[in-house]
Amino acid sequence: MHSFEVWAPRAKEMAVQVDGIAHPMTGPDERGYWRAELDEAGPGSDYGFLVDGDTKAYPDPRSKWQPEGVHGLSRVYDPDAFDWTDAGFQAPPLASAILYELHIGTFTPQGTLDAAIEKLDYLRALGITHVELMPVAAFAGEYGWGYDGVALYAVHAPYGGPDALKRFVNAAHSKGLAVLLDVVYNHFGPVGNYTGKFGPYVTESHHTPWGGAVNLEDAGADEVRRFFCDNAQMWLREFHIDGLRLDAVHAFVDRSAIHFLEQLSAEIEALSAQLARRLVLIAESDLNDPRIVTPREAGGYGIDAQWSDDFHHALFSVLANETDGYYADFGGLRQLAKAIESTFVYDGRYSPYRKRTHGRAAGNLSQHRFLGYIQNHDQIGNRAIGERIEHMTGAPRAKIAAALVLTSPFVPMIFQGEEWAASSPFQYFANHDDPEMARLVSEGRKKEFAAFGWDPESIPDPEQRETFERSKLKWQETTEPRHAEMLAWHWELIRLRRSSADLNVGEPGNASVSFDEQAGWLMVQRGRVFVYCNLGAKDCRFSIRSWGRVLLASAAEVKFEDGVLMLPADAVAVIEMKEGSRQ
Q1: Scanning 9, 477, 538, 559, which has the fewest C-beta atoms within 10 Å of its C-beta?
Q2: Is 248 annotated as a binding residue?
Q3: Number of neighbours of residue 276 by Cβ within 10 angstroms
Q4: Would the annotation count 54 as a binding residue?
Q5: Residues 169, 80: contact at Cβ < 8 Å?
Q6: What pTM does this model have?
Q7: Per the database record, which ranges form the Glycosyl hydrolase family 13 catalytic domain (predicted)?
Q8: How much of the chain exceeds pLDDT 90, in percent?
Q9: In terms of residue numbers, what domain contains 552?
Q10: What's the number of domains the chain is made of?
């Protein structure tokens, strides 16, 4: 026996088709739900909904299994059948975390969750504490980034489906690794979204860059919000996920008295207490608005942490000498110093790029409420050819980037392959099974970058399979000398991060920065740990009038003798001062 339920407030007639046979549903109730209870249905039964006499059966908006893809029928899935062995696992606190963002389709040659399990020992040995998966919710086509999801309760079938995700999480927990999942609640993908057949999931009152905005405040919004809050709870409860990364929350338009983020954070906090598990929410936001990560009782939305774009932009623009687009707001050591010390560079200041005042000061918020990184899927993949930091700056500056990220006051995150300076780019790829949409995506990509002066013929076609294949990691590189050297550098930095009490302080004011814009050097102090960076063209000498020792140096030419640190161009050294001494 199985009970079917679907929200379809505008429908006059509903039926559920199970294994080819239509069965009428009763409803709608006062909330707009239709129901049917069938003895002949159970786990493994294929079904779809018939709306107002339509002969086409549409997949369930809350389907947990789409074995034939997002256009096919849904399949009844028993969420309680999996044999979990992770009882008692507790995710480490974010304050002491090292995050690793990965894309299942390109992380291994096979591109599956089961194949990714084989790399968990590697991640544990590297010192990672949290694995952050890019979206796994089902989307149209075989491969893609995952941000065009349409069956948000189902795990993408080419990745292995729902049981494969459970196997991955169970295996990660057995090795002491927490798992975070990227979810997209601001829009639905353009192909395979059948929610409009059922109810007002999307509003035309507002738009996002990816289509109509999710309906969070118009008629029917209560059940739409319920749809997304229930989805978040499903991943955390049924799949044992330890936290969610919320994509582009700045695209939410919600003028309700209780903002959607506040509602979601309250529900997840209650779930965390119920399950006695540490659960976290991490937002992506470009608003520079501290309300997102301010506790609800202090008037904020109560999200645990957010990505720190200002730190990335300031660091990248200095290392890569890039000032196009939003990098026009950065480019100097002054901005980088402010990002490290104050989190937001634009904290109520005028932004030349936006041509308006932007942001608000982070105030007394812990810097552990912000993630620091030099690479992520967006900052690589949204470049014309998907090149990584080392491809643009060379290994010496990539080492400086890693040192500043992993000694920063923020929670550090690295992107797959970054730790060994992977040669593979991470390009934008998609596999839309709608030919017209595929054409529009390919042409749009070329036009977008042609406007920035790129030759359109040099832009990889996102709809071509080779663009996807080109983005897969080459794991054999980890043992090749050049890549092994970068891997060892990251290994040492992560060990230092995890062992140093000074580097694990997040309170405001815990980091102070000195710099010389003209000479090109910058020094970050975190308690007794000093990070010296030379981004200038000439050697730099620093007189250190107290005892210290070099913990890490990026180049053999770094010398520290008789209280003088000699730092060649494009080098970094991490120095620990004697307790009680002064630099």
Answers
A1: 538
A2: yes
A3: 8
A4: no
A5: no
A6: 0.97
A7: 79-445
A8: 92
A9: 512-577
A10: 3
